[in-house]
Fold:
Amino acid sequence: MDVRRWLIDGVDAVEKWQAGFGPFERHPSLEVSDERFASAFGELTERLRENYPFFHPSYAGQMLKPAHPAAVAGYLAAMLINPNNHALDGGPATARMEKEAVAQLAAMFGLPTHLGHLTTSGTIANLEALYVARELHPGRGIAFSAEAHYTHSRMCGVLGMEGTPVAADGAGRLDGAVEDAIVRHRRDRPRWGAKKIRSMLAREGYPVPAVSTVHQVLVRRGLVDRTVASREPPGGWQRFTRPSCNDLWHIDATRHALAGGRGFWVLDLVDDHSRFLVAAHVAAAPTMEAGWAAFRGAVAAYGLPRQLLSDNGLNFTGRFHGTSVAFERQVTAAGTQLIHSRARHPQTLGKLERQHATQNDWITDHRRPRSLAAAQTVLDAYREDYNTARPHEAIGQRFPAECYLPDPGISLPVIELAPADPYPPGCLMRKVRASGDFRYSTACLPLDIRWAGIQVGLIREHGRLLVYYGAALIDTLIVGDLPEPQNRR
Structure:
C-alpha cells in the first residue's frame, strides 16, 4: 500500500467536500509560508529520528508499533475536518462509524448485546471501565499486579476506590505462597468457589488477587474441572435486607434422611439482617410443636424478633383455612408479629432456601446420623460453622457472627396445641401420628405430617370424611364405603 498516494487522495477528497460550501477568505493567522513551515517541519522530522525503531522486527522492547498506513490515511482525512464524537451533532458521520466499529468489536467477542465507545487510549479505557465497575459494585476494591503500570493505583485514587497490588514472581505470575494458600483452602473446602477463597486470603493477610485470578489458579491446579458461567445478573443481585438484627427472622423446615433411610426434619430460623442462623432444630416432623420449640429455643438464646416470616404451611398458619393454629397464636402472644410469604412464591423466603442448599451439602459431606439425637449433633456443628467460619457474599464476605448483635434472652412457655375454637358437635376425635396419618376404622388415612401430635375432629358424610382443627375444616378425605369405626372414642 502506497501511503503517499492515499494521503494525497485524502487531502483532495476533503478539499472537494469543503469547496461545496462556497468560497471564503481564511483568517490571516492560518496562513503560513512554505519557507517558514519547511524549517519547522525539517526540525520535527530530524528530532523524530531520536525514537527507537518500533517498526522493526528486531526491536522487541515496546508494545508500540506504527499505525497501519490505512489507519494513517484515514486519520489524516478525518483530522482535516476535526469532528468531535461527544454527540451526533459534533460528528454525525464519524459517530456512526464509531458505532459500526464498536459493533464489529462486539461481534469478534460474540456479544450480540453491547454498549461501548472508542477512547483515545488504553489508559482512558481502563479509567472508564473502573468507573463503570465502581458504579455497578459500590464499595468493592480493585486488585492488580504489583508489576502493573502505575496508572492502576492512580486511577483507583482518582475514583476513590481501594486498590490492592498483588505480588508476582519473576515471570509475572501470582506469588507461589498465595497460590498455595488458594489450593489449601480449596482442598479444605471443596465446595467453595473463588469468591469465598479470596475473602479468606484477605483475612489471613495475603495480597488479595482478583476473583478471576483465584479461579484460574483452581483450573490450572486441576481443582475445578470447567469454567462455570456466573449466575449473577449485570449489576449484581438486588438484595432486600432489614436495617437491624432481630427486626425480622425467617422460619422454614427442610427434610433429610437418617442412615437407615427414615426421614427427619430441621426447623431453621435465620436473622434477616446478618444471615445468622439462630436455630437448626431437629424433629421427626415439621409440626407446630417442633416449630415452637425451635422458636422458643432461639428466643431464649438471642431475644425476641419484632417480626417472624413463614410460608403458609398449616404448621405455621391457618389463614387459608379460616382459623388460627397454635403456633401463630403463641408467636403473637409472645409479642412477635407473624407475617407470611405469598402463596406459591418461595422467593420471599430466599434467604432460608439458599441456606437449605448449604445445609444439604453439609449433610451430604458428613456421615449420615443414625438417630435424631445424632442428627442434632450434626446440625449443631453445621450451625457453628455456618455462623463463625463461612464467609457470606450477601454481607460483604463476613461471617454472620461478626454482624449479629443478640438481645437478652427471654423464656417462653411450652406450646398449647388446643385450637382456639371448639370442634363441631358430634366429632370423632383422633390424634395424628408422627407419620402424619391417623387410624380410622380399619384403615390409616394420610393427612399431613405437619399435623403430627395434634387432635383432629372427624365427621362422616357418606363417602367423604371431613377433618377439622377446632371449627376450621382443614381437609376432606374420600373414604368411599369404608365402614365407620365401632369405637367412637
The longest helix spans residues 3-19. The chain has four domains: 3-82, 122-220, 248-403, 428-478.
